[in-house]
Amino acid sequence: MKVEVAKTAGFCFGVDRAVSTVYRLLEEGKRTATLGPIIHNPQVTGDLAARGVVTVNDPAETPKGCTLVIRSHGVSQAVEEKIRALDIPCVDATCPFVKKIHQLAAAAGDQGKTFLLAGDRDHPEVQGILGHCKGENFTVKNNEELVNLLKNNPDLREKPLAFAAQTTFHAGEWEKCLETLKKLCTNAAVFATICNATARRQKEAKTLAQRCDRMIVVGGRDSSNTAKLRDICAQYCETYLIERADELPVFSAGLSVGITAGASTPASIIKEVLATMAEVTNNEQNFEEMLEESLKSFNTDERVHGVVVGISPTEVYVDVGRKQAGFIPANELSNDPSVKPEDVVKIGDEMDLLIMKTNDQEGTIMLSKRRVDAMKGWDEISQALENNEVLEGKVIEVVKGGVIVLYKAMRIFVPAS
Ligand code: F3S
What we know:
This protein is globular. The protein is built from 13 helices and 20 strands. The termini are far apart. It is of the alpha/beta class. Residues 290-300 have low confidence and may be disordered. Strands 13-14-15-17-16 form a five-stranded mixed beta barrel. Bound molecules: FE3-S4 cluster.
C-alpha cells in the first residue's frame, strides 16, 4: 500500500495560536475558561478539560478568577462588549484573518453598503462576523442561494455591496459566486477573505484525491473545514472521515491512500494514524520529515514597509501589502523585555520591518521591528563615535562587570569602570 500525506495537513496558524494561548495561560498558573470549545477536536478539548479548563457558552458563565479566551472563530461586537462590561480578564485569540472580516463588515455599514457574506450562517465564525455588521446584511451558503437572493431582491443588483467569505468557504463555490456577481450586480466590491491556509489545504486535498484510490480525512466530526475536505475528496475517490487512529478502515494491499487533516487536527493524531498504518503495511514513510517539510519556512533578509492593523498582548498584526498576514511576535518588537506591545506601537503606525520567516502554506509572514531598529541604531552609534558625540540610553539590565543600556533597540554594554 502506498501512503501519501498532504503537506498542508493539521493545525493552521490561527488554531495553533489559540490552542497555544490556552496552554500558555495554564503554564502561567492561570485558571482558564474558553468561550466555546477552543477547537473542534475532542482529544485536545478532553486534555484541556482534564487540566481544569472550563468551556462556557456565555461570558456570564465564566467562573470567578478565570481568564476567558476567545477562540480563533471570534465573537460579535455585543459579546466583546459584554466581556468588557463584566470586567472579565480576557485574551482575544481571534484569528487575525477573521478580525479583518469583522473590520470589513463594520466598514461596509459605515459606508452605507450592504454586506454580503458567503458562509454557513450556523457557524460561530459567521455569527461573530455578522455581529460586527452595522447595516443591511445577508448570508448565502452557496452560489444557488446567491442567485435566489438576487432574484428575490432585485434592488440589491444596483446597490453598493461589499462581498466577503467565511475564511473556510469552499474556494470553488466562491469562484461561482463571483461569476454570478459579475453578471448580475453593477456595484459590488469583492474581498477575497478565504484563508490561504484553507484554500491550499482544499486544493491539495483535491489533487491528492484525484491520484489516490482512497482518502482519509482526519479531524473532528463537528469541524466544518474537516467536513468540507471530506466533501471535496469524496468527489474523486472513496473517502473516510476519522477522528482517531482506531477508526481506520482496513485497506487491501496495492491501494494508494492519501491522508489529509482539518485545521484543528493536532500533529500527534496524524502521527498516530500514520503509525497505525505503518504497522499494518510496514510503510516506511517518515512523517516527521514530511511534517517538517510541510512547515518549511525560510529566512530572508528582505525588508518591507507595513502598517499596524492590530495589537494583542503577544503579537502585533501588520498589513505589508501582500496577501499574507504579517505579524510581529512581542519579542521581535523591542529589545527591552519590560515594554508591552501597546507601549511600542499603535494602530495605524507605519514602519520598516525585516521578514524573519514566511509560511506560504499558512499565508503568514513573521516580521521583526527590533532588528531594523537595531540596524538603524548601529549606524547612528557608528556616526556618534566618529563625531565624538554623546548619546543617551536607558539602563535595562545590571550584568557582571557593568550594565546593559538600550539605545534605539541596540543592547550596549557599558563597563562598570
Ligand atoms: Fe485563521 Fe485560516 Fe486558521 S482563518 S483560524 S489561519 S484556517
